[in-house]
Each structure stands twice: as C-alpha cells, then as structure tokens.
Amino acid sequence: MKELFYSVTPLEELFVKLDKLDVSPPVVEVSVWDALGRVLAEDFRSPVNVPHFRRAARDGYAVVARDTFGAGEEKPVTLRVIGEVKAGDERSPRIGDRACVKVATGALMPEGADAVVMVEHAVEREEYVDVYRAVTPGENVVEEGRDIRRGALVVEKGRVLAPQDIGAIAATGVDKVRVYGRLRVAVASTGDELVAPGGELKPGKIYDVNSVTLVNAVRASGGEAVYMGVIRDSRELLLNALREALATCDVVVFSGGTSKGPGDAVPSALRDLGDLDFMIHGLAMKPGKPTAVASYKGKPVFMLPGYPTSALLSYYVIVDPYIRKWSHLPPCEGMEVKARAGVKIFSEEGRLEFKPVRLKVEGGEVRVYPAYTGSEAITTLSLTHGYIEIKASRSFIEQGEEVTVRLFRPLREIRGLEEESW
Amino acid sequence: MKELFYSVTPLEELFVKLDKLDVSPPVVEVSVWDALGRVLAEDFRSPVNVPHFRRAARDGYAVVARDTFGAGEEKPVTLRVIGEVKAGDERSPRIGDRACVKVATGALMPEGADAVVMVEHAVEREEYVDVYRAVTPGENVVEEGRDIRRGALVVEKGRVLAPQDIGAIAATGVDKVRVYGRLRVAVASTGDELVAPGGELKPGKIYDVNSVTLVNAVRASGGEAVYMGVIRDSRELLLNALREALATCDVVVFSGGTSKGPGDAVPSALRDLGDLDFMIHGLAMKPGKPTAVASYKGKPVFMLPGYPTSALLSYYVIVDPYIRKWSHLPPCEGMEVKARAGVKIFSEEGRLEFKPVRLKVEGGEVRVYPAYTGSEAITTLSLTHGYIEIKASRSFIEQGEEVTVRLFRPLREIRGLEEESW
C-alpha cells in the first residue's frame, strides 16, 4: 500500500519556530478621531501644561482668599464686583484688596485672585457681593498643569487606546497619534472546484467559504485582510499569487489545495519559489494535519487545510495568536470557561485534537457536548460555542470530567445559557 | 442665599423612562465580506442544499460498496478503473459492477457509486486497482444536503456574526446579509471656551476633549458617531445644532453648556424647541448630577456634563447600555471583577457615586484603590481601570470590603496585573 502520510510536527515545535519570526507592522499616524482600539507605538508625553492657564473650578466669584476669612452664614463679608469672566474669555481683570470678579466654571482666573467663592455661598447686590462662607487659598481653582504637566507621560507605549486615553491625548491639543499599523494579511483559497459566493454553481462546484471566513477572521484578529481571490490548481497561478501576496502583504494565509491526490499541491508548488523556508509540513493535530507553514524572507506563509472547519480551527489555533502578537495586541479574546463534559467525548489517541463543542445548561450547570458534525461540515463551528483541547495521550474525556472550553464568542452572546447559574 | 440646585432624579427612574423609548436602527444589507460583528436582523434559512451534489469525502476510488465486501490486507479485490474525477469537474462517469472511478476529495460522485475506498487502501495497476479494505455503502461519501438542508435555519436572528457564521451563510451562495444598521449618534460639545484639537489655544480656551472621547465611545458602543462640531454658547446656534442632529441622527449626545451660571444653558435653550420632552434634568448620581435627558418624537437627547471625566462616566453609565440595547447588541462588554478595597474609600452620603478606581496586585491579591484625581481632571479615567458603584446610603467602603469593579478595558489589556494570581 502507498504510504501518503507525511511526517507530522508537534504544535509546540511550530510555535517555537514562529516565535523566532520578527514580523512587525510599520508605525503609522492616525487621527485621534479614528484611534479607537489602535495600539500606541510610542510613549505619549504631553507637549504642554493642561490646563495651560489658571482656571476657576466653579461658578462664583474669584477673590483673594484672606478677604473672606471670618465670613459665615450670620456675618457675610462684602466685596466689590469689578468685572465678569466667562468660560472662553481670553482676558481677565486684575483684582486688588476687597474686590472680586464674577467667574464661570473654566474661566481664566483674574491675576491677584487665589480662590473662588461658589455662587451658592454668595448674594450679589448691584456692584457688591455678600460672601457667606470663607474660602482658603487655592479653593475651587485649578492651577496651570494640574491635570497634565508638560513632558509628563500621558499614555504609555503598547496601550490599546480606549476613549478616555484618546481624550487625555486630545486634551494636550495633539490630534494625531502614532500607532502600530495593521498587519496586511493576504487571504486566498485554492481549488478548481471553488466559486465565489454569489456566483453560479454547477455540479461539482462549491462556494469558496474559506476566503469569506478567513477575511473576517483576520479582521477579528486585528489584521487588514487583503483578498487575493480563488486560485486555480495550477503551479504557475499559485506561484504568481504567492509572489504577489509576498510583495504586498506581511503575512500570507492560503487554504485548500488538497484536492490533487497527496494533499500537498499548494506546498509542493510553492517549494518552487525557492527561498521559501518550510518550517513544518504536517501538524500533529486534528483537524489541521495537512497544514504547512513556511517563511519567505521573514514573512510567514500559512497553508491551511481546505475543509472550512479545519481551516478556521487551524486559523484560531495557529494563526490568530501570532497576528495578535505581531500586531502588539493582547494575546486573544481571553474567553475561556471551565465546565464538565455532559457525555464521554471520544478522541483519536496519538493526535492532539481540537474538538468543537456546544455548551448546554442542565440542572443549573453548564455541560459540554461534542459537535454533532465533523470537520468536513461547513456548519460545525457555527453550531458550536467553542472548542476543547484533548491531549494526544487521551482517547476520550470521561463524562463529568472538567474541561476548559475556548469560546468562539463572549458568553453574553450565547443564547439559551443562563449565565447567572454559573 | 440662592438655591441653584435643581431637583435630582434617581437613576432607576431615568432607566424606566428610557426603557419606554423605541429606538431602532433600520435593517440594512451588507456584504458577507463586511459582516463581522454585525447583528443578523432576520433568521437566515438556506435557499439550497449544501452540498448540492454527492461528493467524495476522501481521495480514492468511487466504488459500489458491495463489490469490495471481503477485501482485506491479505486478499485484495480487483476493480477496473474507468475514469477519473477531480474536484471541480462538472461531470462524472456512470459506473457498473466491478468498476470504479478515481476521485479526489470533494469530487462529484459517479452515478452508481455508493462509497469511496481511500487511496491509502488501494494500489493502482494500469487500468485496475487492488482494494485492500472493504467499505460500507455511504462510506467516505457526503450526501446532497448533508451539511445544510434547503430551508434549514442556518443562523438565527439576533446573532452577532462571527467568521464561522458568515462562512455558513456564504456556503449557501448568498453574498449579502440583512443586519441591523448602526444607530447614528450625533455628538457635539458646547462652550465658548472650546477649541478643536490641533487648533491654536489662547488663554482662557481649552481643547474640546469630550467630542473626541464621545465619538470614540459611541463607536465602542457599536454606534455610528456623527460629529457636529463645537457649538458656541448661543441659544440660536444650540437650537440649530439640535434641529440638525434630530433631522439626521437617531440619538443625540451633547456635552457641556454648564459654563453660564446655573448649569443648564443647554437644557434651557433646548426647551425652546418645543416638543422636546424632558425625562429628567438633574440625576441623583456623582459625577453626572447636571445631566439632562429628553426625547423629541421618540429620539433620545442626552445632555451630559462638561467635565470630561463626568461626561464619559455618565456616558458609560447611562448612554452606552442603551445604544447597545437599541442596536440589538449584547448588553455591555461584560467586564466585571470582584476585588477588595485596598484602603477605605470615601463617598458622599446621599448620592449614588460612580468612583473611578485603579487595580493593584499586592501579595498575590488584587486590591482596589480610588483615583488620585477627581472628575474635573481630564486624565482620571485614563489613569484608572474601571469604576465602582457606591450606594447613596454609604459614606465609605471599608478597607478590605469586596467591591465589584466595572472595567474600562479587558483585564488582559491591563499591564502589571498578574491575572494568574486571581
């Protein structure tokens, strides 16, 4: 009998090799209006003091604090009102003893004044005001640079920018930030049987599911997907597509090409490129065994299996963590739950298996069930909630055994589960 | 003394009123290439069988199963090879007794064949093949409609589309899906003191932080932010801006306008629009007391305080949950952690307080500390990790007391915390 199985590499060995690649997106400048979720590429230090002038912190009267000493509800202190400053006014009068200036919150403080009496504690009578509560120097005044000192670190390199971070940057007047660009990831499917969604489907043809799935998955990983189209099973077309992908993108993700016999049409065609350094061809995992990973002058080329469920699960296990890492994004969605197996879950001994599973609440407890369908079914991942990892040494998981489920989506998006009962 | 404090409404009363609004985005059609994270607006049922023809599930030989009965490693069965079908070939020969067709994975099954012998279990000799393992009818064959039956529910209404859901839809050949449109949310800041980031800053002026922050926050909530610019403190300009916002958007979020004395310049100007139905003006919470919320012919108008920290915290507490709800998105980022207070945390008795806090790992435990700065500081939220809610009846949280922290960002994005130790 022919032996067509190639040697398989343990997943950890692939990870060690991928860890050595130095894939990094360029640093780009984006507007603060579009900076949500981007990763700051360098420490942001303030070019200015914020606020850059002394401001009133309350609506009221800017005073010399010592003029109000002794004031109380029974014995107000009377001051002369010599002007008014609104928020946004660019000038403020200078005040002397026993005078004050009416100010609005945020207004430029008058020179000479060192506190603000809140409007609630004062009664104005023509050009005078009765102050019913004493203030201390500095009370209700925001000093220059109180929020942010010139040169101070406002947001550190590597932070995923949230609205408040962008606001702190914008407060210094800066309207562009330097962030890591998105990794450009080429996505293509290979196979004579593939038709782009929306096209006409003759017998023998199927829709190209993987491109749509992987383009969206790359975006979910924080990358910029560059769709290269369906590539026919021709060595020349494959090579051209790979050359184009390598010329324009940082990472290449191909799927399929297992339709011509020994299951390595794509890898073997691509070996012809030369300089393509194969890290592995054949992975000790299920699904995903026919996976090949190579690099070309430091750029990773992932060749995933053609079955949609195998392709996407391999993507989640192998590609997603690295797109995130190279993009300086946090390692993953971090969505894991522990729960007990609802039935005995079988696995092939001798191969690390990633098994799609469903969650189900039974008697107030969440139970884990294997998918009804296998990796050849297109709907398997859409009908499941996540996957579990079954070690090569195990041939099954016992009913009732605790397993860790890596979720495809946050728990709150999974319907029919009463999260409260966990 | 003047009493300028308006009556305040408990948060729950506002929520009851907001719950009665029926804000809903239109249903829109998007390409499967751009459907990630969108919410499906109607059940998706398959218009076709998937696969729409009988396929070979393996590379090998399509046979009549009963012809192989009795085959074994010691006594192969010999069949005549009458043709070959590759994946994507639109025709397949008809086979009779003791004949077979070489097939690739995914190939159209020949009429008459009911199983596939894997290539690993066969040896080809010119026009014959020796089969070393018997197969049963249906073995290694994918029947028409096996993955998805015509008319079957593929993805249910309300699901937030993940790559695998989009893939399952694309497998049926459909390249557009009907999803909920994004809510259009008008964002504007009001105040004579405001200058757009990047502009020149004279004394008395400050950068408009809130617009940048809220535009990004609206996007984080799943809305489409429509920036209306800085509105000067003029009743006419405010009214014009509100009219424009209401004409073009589903939700309006204004901030500021508290600079002119009693703190309700914006709400009072907007009362002139007529038909603007005020739900509340003044909220029993800290920060966010000056908040006003109205509706105009069913469209919500949120008037948030001007201080950036107050504005954004009010947004997170009041606006974000409703943008998500109205958009049919899951209720929130769902990011909460329980941890103990590292120090006694003071609060104003009689007011529900949302206090920004920092997390810190001490002796392997996460502790909660209040922000160094108050709601007047622009950096408060950027320097904290989340906020806790302190009931109106409490004047402090005891050191060591357990509190629930609503996080601004996922834990994995917070540096310096060893998540393992939780």
What sort of overall outline of chain A do the alpha carbons produce when their principal axes are compared?
elongated
Mean pLDDT value of chain A: 91
Helical amount among residues of chain A, as a percent range? 10-25%
Number of continuous helical runs of chain A: 8
Total count of strands of chain A? 28
Describe the structure.
2 copies of one chain form a homodimer. Chain A contains 8 helices and 28 strands. Chain A has helices at residues 11-19, 65-68, 163-170, 209-220, 235-248, 265-271, 308-326, 380-383, and strands at residues 27-31, 44-45, 55-56, 60-63, 77-85, 99-103, 115-118, 122-125, 128-131, 141-142, 153-155, 176-180, 184-190, 194-195, 206-207, 224-231, 251-256, 276-281, 285-286, 292-296, 299-304, 336-341, 345-346, 352-362, 365-370, 386-390, 396-397, 402-407. In chain A, a hairpin with a 2-residue loop joins strand 8 and strand 9 (128-131). In chain A, helix 4 (209-220) runs parallel beside helix 7 and helix 5 (235-248) crosses helix 6 (265-271). The first copy, chain A, starts with 10 loop residues before the first helix and ends in a 15-residue tail after the last strand. Helix content of chain A is 18%, strand content 31%. At the A-B interface, helix 3, strand 14, strand 15 and helix 4 of A face helix 2, strand 14, strand 15 and helix 3 of B.
